[in-house]
Amino acid sequence: MTQDTSIYYVWIGGSCDYAHKERAGSAAVVIELIKQQEQSQKCLNSAEPRQKKTKDQHHGNIISRDVISDLHTTEFRMMLTLMIKVMQEIPEGSNILFLTNAAYIRNFDKSPTSESANPDLIVQCIEKKERHNSVEVKIVQYHKSPLLIETHNMATEAMAKTRKEFHQTQEQKN
User: Fold this and answer.
1) Distance between CA atoms of residues 79 and 13, nearest Å
2) Close Cβ partners of 126 (under 8 Å, ≥ 6 residues apart)
């Protein structure tokens, strides 16, 4: 029997337009699946030279992308919401590594205090984390992480779309 040591690398980024009164917030993920057994076997059997990886690039199979956006919120709230969704959708017992440059999500699994922002979502994160073998957050450098840059671009685009749709709806009402 072999142990599944696959890891889901979840690149997660967010965006928020604090300058607008309707304050749209968004978050996006790109999920890579790194199958350790397959990767090791490919390296052993391959006559091809190994692809050189740069730090914070894992070259797994991208299995999904997702983005959420809403009004009157923050990117922190959107990122926690998307983390909950990801932990619910990834198969139980998995290993998940969230990769981000947003240090404020590091404590997603620490019991909230009266001073915590978004304690309702943090409690849900703690509950969803229990479904898995391991769930961690790693802070990475933004400019060296193409998939992280992609998440920020996706989030910014979704946020702009949400705000635009809101304004179009307001204009139609008037």
Assistant:
1) 7
2) 109, 111
Write down the H helix ranges in 69-145. 75-89, 119-129
Query: From CA 85, how far away is CA 124, in angstroms rounded?
Result: 10
Pairing, β 95-100 against β 134-139: parallel
Dump pLDDT digits (tens) for 41-95.
Answer: 444 443 333 344 444 555 679 999 999 999 999 999 999 999 999 999 999 999 9
CA-CA-CA-CA torsion sign (64, 76, 93, 128) = negative
Model pTM above 0.90? no
Nearest to 96 by CA among 130, 65, 124: 130
Give the Å distances, CA to CA, from 87 to 29, 93, 134, 136, 146: 12, 10, 11, 11, 23
What's the distance, CA 145 to chain centroid?
A: 13
